[in-house]
Amino acid sequence: MTDPSAPDSLHVTYLFDPLCGWCYGAAPMVRQLAATPGITVELAPTGLFSGDGARPMDQGFAAYAWSNDQRIERLSGQRFTEAYRQKVLNAPALNARPQMFDSGPATLALTAVSLTAPDAERDALNAIQEARYVDGRDIVSPARLAEILREAGLDAAAGLIATPSDALVAANRARTNKARQMMAALGAQGVPTLVVTDASGRRMLRSNALFGGFDDLLAAIRAA
Questions:
Q1: What is the pTM of this model?
Q2: What InterPro entries does UniProt report for this protein, alphabetically (predicted)?
């Protein structure tokens, strides 16, 4: 792991939520950043859309989300497919049982990966995001999330979220609390947000830095 105290090293904390469309849009830039020598990217799920931040899915919210998603696609090139629109956003209109917009289960799944295969967490996040936005799959159900993790070869994590232990729930709470405390300390208003740490301290980058050119992002990080 890169030492943030080293003069030429940078530690970047990526504050995100797995149900955030903008975070999905930022995924290619985050992947490229993580592959850049001298930079370590730490995933920090905030749980913003879980607990009190969760809400019922309804037609009004679905229409708002789809409009927003089209803007994200234009800016990032990330796909928001018709399968996602019909099977996820329009699902409440097709089913009598109400569904929730709740990132709690997906956040717990990522914590399970962080405990069992930490080097695979970024790939797990990508798999969960693509399952929703490309394949139109349910990432609110723990059972469906376990399927996605198994398909990614993460059987141990899948087993953990099938029957969450007190230790997993506590670890998840600690991660999200830490991320939210960082947001509050730096005045972050939402996600995605990057926090840059090096020998001189810790600074926040605005989320729009993730939706331009990569060279511009890298320059902003190094100048932060």
A1: 0.93
A2: DSBA-like_thioredoxin_dom, GST_Kappa/NadH, Thioredoxin-like_sf
Residue 2 counted as domain residue: no
Q: Are 125 and 110 in contact (CB under 8 A)?
A: yes
The DSSP-derived string for 105-133 is: HHHHHHHHHHHH-GGGHHHHHHHHHHHHH
For residues 22 and 46, the answer to whether their CB atoms sit within 8 Å is no
Q: Are strands 10-16 and 39-45 parallel, antiparallel or unpaired?
A: parallel
Gap between the Cα atoms of 148 and 158, Å rounded: 8
CB distance 79 to 73 below 8 Å: yes
Residue with tokens 């969760």, as numbered in its chain: 54
Crossing angle, helix 155-162 and helix 104-116, to 10 degrees? 130
Query: In which domain, by residue range, is 88 found?
Result: 10-223
Write out pLDDT tens, residues 71-103. 999 999 999 999 999 999 998 666 656 688 999
C-alpha span between 206 and 216 (Å, rounded): 13
Site of tokens 């990330």: 78
Decide: helix, strand or coil at residue 203: strand
Cross-strand partners of 42: 13
User: Residue 175: in which H helix or E strand, if any?
Assistant: helix 166-186
The number of folded domains in the chain is 1
Q: What is the chain's mean pLDDT, rounded?
A: 93
Residue from 22, 50, 144, 48 nearest 88 by CA? 144
pLDDT digits (tens, 9 = 90+) for 154-205: 999 999 998 999 999 999 999 999 999 999 999 999 999 999 998 889 999 9
